[in-house]
Write a structure and sequence with these properties.
The protein has 178 residues and is α/β, with parallel strands linked by helices. The protein contains eight helices and six strands. Helix 2 links the parallel strand 1 and strand 2. Keywords: Ribonucleoprotein, Ribosomal protein. InterPro entries: Ribosomal_uL13, Ribosomal_uL13_bac-type, Ribosomal_uL13_sf.
Length: 178
Amino acid sequence: MSILRRAQQWSTFTTTWHIYDAKWQDPYKSAELIKHYLLGMHKPIYHPLNYCGDHVVVINSKDIALRGDEWRKRVYFHHNTYSGGASWTLAWELHNLNPTLIVSKAVYRAMTGNLQRRYTMQRLHIYPDENVPEKILQNVSNQIKQLRSVPIRLDHIPKEEVEQFPKLLSYPEDFVLK
């Protein structure tokens, strides 16, 4: 067996660490992507009863983006097992309490039908910003590509670049808006 084939085989059976930037991403579409890496579905040796998944580190979970007016309309249910212990929390309230919970709940929901999802969730590490412990960053060896690109704000574009951008129409010096 060649050295290259042996390295490919070793990488198939090892547990790798992936990093995913959740900035401006839909947590429910991102959860489907993250689920594949947590369960090991991207590996050729995947089987639902095998332990072949990887670790995923999610950063910038406080900057997630929900579609439309889901911040005001999406509701999360919780029951504390006591009589009358049911409660419903709006998405924006839950996000203000803990910015990592919406991503965590989305990934947990995406893994329906998986009998091991409680243990699989232990390999998911979520951080509200880019401050990740150095011990965890040393393990990361792969980056998961974002589903949609993050737009650049106009106030972050240099003034020279804005002035050099081609104009469709240039107003005369003495032009007055009425």
